[in-house]
Amino acid sequence: MRPLLIDLFMKVQISKSGPKFSRIVAGCMNWGEWGAKLNEKDVLELINRCVDIGVTSFDHADIYGHYTTEILFGKALKNSGSLRDKMQFITKCGIQLVAPNRPEHNLKSYNTSKQHIIKSVENSLLNLNTDYIDLLLIHRPSPLMHPQEIAEAFEELQKSGKVLHFGVSNFTTSQLEVLDAHFPLCTNQIEVSPLQLNPFTDGTLDQCLLKNIKPMAYSTLAGGQFFTQHPSEQVKRINKVLNKLSDKYKAGRDQIIIAWILKHPSAILPVIGSTKIQRIEAALTSLNIELSDEEWFSIYEASLGHEVA
Q1: Which of 64, 67, 218, 249 does the annotation list as catalytic?
Q2: Residue 42 and which of 35, 68, 95, 302 are 20 to 30 A apart at CA?
């Protein structure tokens, strides 16, 4: 790996009129009850260390930790002074989970009504101890969603200053197209990894290029499947290639995977879900690994199990 040349504190504008985020985004899903079960002190320390290295954008959803992780994050920030001014908050709404603190939910479902979106944002503002959300995403597309109603919610939230920008998560190209026709969207947050190749061929990333919006990618390491003791045959094939590239670039397999994702011309922003600062730092150094086209395709073809057509 050549000497670090990337400005880690440089922000990336994710759309023509959209917000500027750090090139690597810290994913908070596993910070609370659904993962590491960090306490408020641990959360504040991790936030500070992320900001210190240039990872200033933090990805949430109202449902994380069964509606508790935003609260944990907000409590940690309560007496942090001007730290909020250095950060960007992303959160998501639209999924309704059955949880003790949501007794009105009888089953898991989606709700993209204007009333639900606005109520969810007001809850997130209180939970995160902030006056505004930098970016709100509709977490999942509902079969019953009405794009005009969603647009009305977005317009009201933007006019009030409660949310600055809007996007979607897990939307197909047609679903994004319909909503974008009613209200301009900044991003589509999708699953991308060597085990999830669909966005490269189903038009999702092509659409982002066409609209000049930068996608975000979650589960970039496929839930740790590349590091399990009993990998699938597909993972074994990919790991064989990753190991060779790791030796060449003197980097970990995780760094090679992030570099592979970063290479795509749509300028994907990886969301790193680890609570270990070393893993987040490693993702940052991936910015300095420049895979050749053939090296990129060697990982792609290992996943497919055959050469491209």
Answers
A1: 64
A2: 95
| Strand runs labelled E in 61-118 | 88-93, 95-96, 109-110
Strand ranges (E), 117-253? 133-138, 163-169, 188-191, 216-218
pLDDT in tens, 32-86: 999 999 999 999 999 999 999 999 999 999 999 999 999 999 999 998 888 999 9
Map residue 304 onto helix, strand or coil: helix
Whole-angstrom distance, CA of residue 262 vs CA of residue 257: 9
Distance CA 111, CA 93 (A): 8
Q: Which residues contact 81 (CB under 8 A, 6 or more apart)?
A: none
Token pair 């995977």 in the structure block, residue: 257
| pTM assigned to the model | 0.96
Q: Is 180 helix (H, G, I), strand (E, B) or coil?
A: helix
Catalytic status, residue 64: yes
